[in-house]
Amino acid sequence: MNPTMKSLGLTAALSLAAVPALAQEKLKVGLLLTLSGPSAVLGQQARDGFQLAVKEMGGKLGGRDVEVIVVDDELKPDVAVTKVKGLIERDKVDFVVGPIFSNVAVAVHKPIVDAQTFYISVNAGPSNLAGKSCNPYFFATSYQNDQNHEVLGKVAQDRGYKKVYLLAPNYQAGKDALAGFKRHYKGEIVEESYVPLNNLDFQSELAKIASMKPDAIFTFMPGGMGVNLVKQYRAAGLADRIPFLSAFTVDESTLPAQQDAAIGMLGGSNWAPNLDTPQNKKFVTAYEAAYNSVPGSYSMHAYDAAQMIDTALKATGGKMDNKDAVRAALKKADFKSLRGDFKIGANGFPVQDFYLVKAAKRPDGKFQTEIVEKVFDDYVDAYAKECAATN
Amino acid sequence: MSPIAETRPVAITGQRRRVEWLPVILFGAFVLAPVFAAFSGAEGYVLSLLTRVMIFGIAAMSLDLILGYGALVSFGHAAFLGIGGYAVGILAAHGVEDALVQVPVALAASALFGLVTGAISLRTKGVYFIMITLAFGQMLYFLATSLASYGGDDGMTLAARSLVAGLPLLKGDFALYWVCFVCLLGTYVLARSIVASRFGRVLRGSRENATRMEAIGFHPFRYQLVAYMISGMMAGLAGCLLANQAEFISPAFMTWQRSGELIFMVVLGGLGSLHGAVLGAAAFLLLEEFLPEILHMLGFMLSTDMQARLVENWKMVFGPLLILIVLFARGGIMGMLGGRHE
Amino acid sequence: MTATLFLVQALNGLQFGLILFLIAAGLTLVFGVMDFINLAHGVQYMVGAYLAAAFTAWTGNFGLALLLALPSALAFGLLLEVLIFRHLYDRDHLDQVLATFGVILFLNQGVKFVWGAAPLNVPVPEILSGSIEIADGLLYPVYRLAIIAAGLAVAALLYGLVSHTRVGMLVRAGASNAPMVAALGVNIKRLFMIVFGFGAMLAGFAGAMVAPILSVEPGMGDNILILAFVVIVIGGIGSIRGAFLAAILVGLVDTVGRSFAPNLLRLVLDPANASQTGRAIAPMLIYIFMAAILFFRPAGLFPAKR
């Protein structure tokens, strides 16, 4: 494996001279991920997952030597737009894989698909890309953003919780999360509480929760916010009294910081490290050996994205010139996904199973999420029907 | 009219003559760049990068107008970028796609926001001014994140670039490049003539000694307020262009970090020369874009693993670079070129 | 119920305010006495948290880690002072802003380089890990009370130091007229070092104290830095008393306002509109508050005489 960076580009753009048409036969994949700032750990997981797959396939995808170009989007949408133009026009990448965040995904969507380049999301699944703005060049190996929330809504409904308290950061993804939860939950919502983005302290919300005594709470608190909330929820003594349902709050990226405080807390996911398939066992072992941390779904999606490119190119004999043939092969997704049951739906998003997962401590002292039960089987996202599928 | 204000300060004119070649070279480079871009094989990328440089050049220059000449450190200047961007985005969402409507609306909105916040902010001085402009910038930022119908926090993709008189003139990257160039040149000429005018001299005088200006019959407050509004309108124009360049708007355009970056561009380029701010914007954006690759090349003797680590941590080089520039190159890039003329 | 809830929120506001005060105190002194804008103050808070995390992992004891983290934070602050900040004192504010921003970039990436991008965990010390019931069903964590107590103790200590010791007298004199203090033969360089080191240690202490309840991650100092600036500007630059009052006010406005703004708006708007508007206004509250204070008192609540 050779994590080659875009060294040629500098000379090209500074001198404004032509890029030498070097190594034409190399397949180029641009990884656009958030690698700086507080959320960098998510981007790192995705990068490592992708590169692990490439390494295991001998530095080749679909039989062609591959050059992986890693770019940091800095979580700034307009910076990402310029960088993605660089990937497409300067580096001439065949695939753009990424990003982590929906706002970046929405911003770079137009330049990528306008250039007729294949775009595979490894995490972000904003509703408009699944619905109205779906595009034949866009695929996701992850999920539509709402789906993990829907899992918890279904669980809350099935378990007969009468009163649920909802808590989310005050931004679009937060509102979408609560909307997703409510799609299947029909009981009473005692409070919809919004905190500022990057909120540090949840004491005032915890005080409200304690006084309202709901049957459960549902929350979406990604990254550092989730670490804070879980630790404070445990410290306030609520963890043993009021079930904690969440999405993107307790996962492998936050568990190293939450540790014991998170044990037993519930989440929704399309996968967990302990999912019992042979490929998955091999993947988790290899990932832990290579990067010394437990993989999260971000790395699983990226690993699958590499497999998806690999099989598509094998089907076309390594050729990229017939885009329709590549697309058809990508759609077929004829590979063994780490999550087992996996298909690509009409809008380019996966049709897959969803599980209720629980944070647990492994015998070796590390923390991971583990599957409790399957909640949805071959689940299609709610926006797929809005997609006027050309796909 | 006071006779004092009518007198041209000789020293300034004399010094300015000496560095007049710099803006010529700068704008000449912008004129020639697209020609080379066509040969680079990555035309759209090079153009989009340089277009961004020019857009942030306009924004930084607008800030220099009040910062370099009026010593008004606005820490909420990115708000105007946001106003310009959202004027384009919101109007486009309601079917008004013509720049001939969008730009005047953006300028009027920027002027209004400048008038209201400027009138309050200018009551304070120094750091208090910095912080109160930050406060207004933050309020607008949070307002934008709450606009759920315009994408909220995620922002919103524009269906297409703005039309001009009903024609899709901005569609191509070259066209947009030239429009940005004309805007940059236009605002530069405008700002230069403002600075050289009686108005500009009063503004500078108020920076040096507000009491004295008052004593000779000027109201610094009014001059500063008008300058603040003009500066805001220029940044609003830059916002319109940025929305068209990225074909996307988002609250990320107006975070306080972005306002900070604008200040850094101005200081990096050198205060109080206008074209220095454009140079600063160019240096900042090009470093941000290419430092990882420069490091990659410098690290050629290291193992690929170490090289990747070095590239990933490019900010650990960027930070000390900024410190060194401050410590050893007084007056920013203009200072290094010996052209700081105030 | 509303009354006890209000009490809890007020406690939360107090605790948040005290953390803000620990950071703002150093910032306002450095600014007031040395006329030096130190944006890197926020990363000193972050470094304090990381040091606490590292020492806790090493010793297995939070109290011991705290004892080790304090002198380390002090030493680190002094190192920065000698290497970089010392050369910036006679520069204008913008140069200082630019250079200290460089320090932020470096250290934010630096902690990631050393400790990795994932947030670190610091367990709450065993003896402080419980919670006490202040009203029916309302639990309040003991550790939070410990933060309040520590914050108040430091505030009292600072008050004593600044108003009743010789160094404190020099600091106060420096805040109102630094050149005059230098002219009177005081070793101003040493005074600056003391003030700076002390400020860095306070910020580091705040970081170490919050490490068990907040996520220790790169960039954690950036947003708190802006709030600390809000605090010192409201309080009046150079004024410890102003910083204390402003920190508590900001803490209360943020915490109490956030949970009660929608309720108050419900009096004048229908519920759906009220919660929508409340959501939009809540994050702006602090800034509206600051703008209002500065509108009526353009130099803050307790302006130091210049």
**How many helical elements of chain C?**
11
Under CATH at level 1, the class of the largest domain in chain A stands as Alpha Beta
Q: End-to-end distance of chain C, in Å?
A: 49 Å
N→C terminal distance of chain A: 33 Å
Strand content of chain C: under 5%
Reading side by side through the largest sheet of chain C, how are the strands ordered? 1-2
Number of domains of chain A: 2
Largest sheet properties of chain A: 8 strands, mixed
Chain-averaged pLDDT of chain C? 86
The proportion of residues in beta strands of chain A is: 15-25%
Structure description:
The complex is a heterotrimer of chains A (391), B (342) and C (306). Chain A is α/β, with parallel strands linked by helices. Chain A has 13 helices and 14 strands. In chain A, helix 3 (77-90) runs parallel beside helix 4, helix 6 packs parallel to helix 7 (172-182) and helix 12 (297-315) crosses helix 13 (323-332). In chain A, 64% of the residues are buried. The model of chain A is unreliable at 1-24 (pLDDT under 50). Chain B has helices at residues 3-6, 10-18, 21-40, 43-70, 78-93, 99-121, 126-145, 173-196, 198-208, 210-215, 220-246, 256-269, 275-298, 304-312, 315-328, 332-336, and strands at 156-157, 248-249. In chain B, helix 4 runs parallel beside helix 8 (173-196), helix 4 crosses helix 13 (275-298) and helix 6 (99-121) packs antiparallel against helix 11. Chain B is mainly alpha-helical and 342 residues long. Helix content of chain B is 74%, strand content 1%. The two termini of chain B are 25 Å apart. Chain C is mainly alpha-helical and 306 residues long. Chain C has a domain at 8-218. Chain C has helices at residues 2-34, 41-59, 62-83, 93-115, 142-164, 166-183, 188-210, 220-235, 240-265, 271-281, 285-296, and strands at 131-135, 138-141. A two-stranded antiparallel ribbon of chain C has the order 1-2. In chain C, strand 1 and strand 2 form a beta hairpin. Chain C starts with a helix and ends in a 10-residue tail after the last helix. Chains in contact: A-B, A-C, B-C. The interface between A and B is large, with 47 and 47 residues.
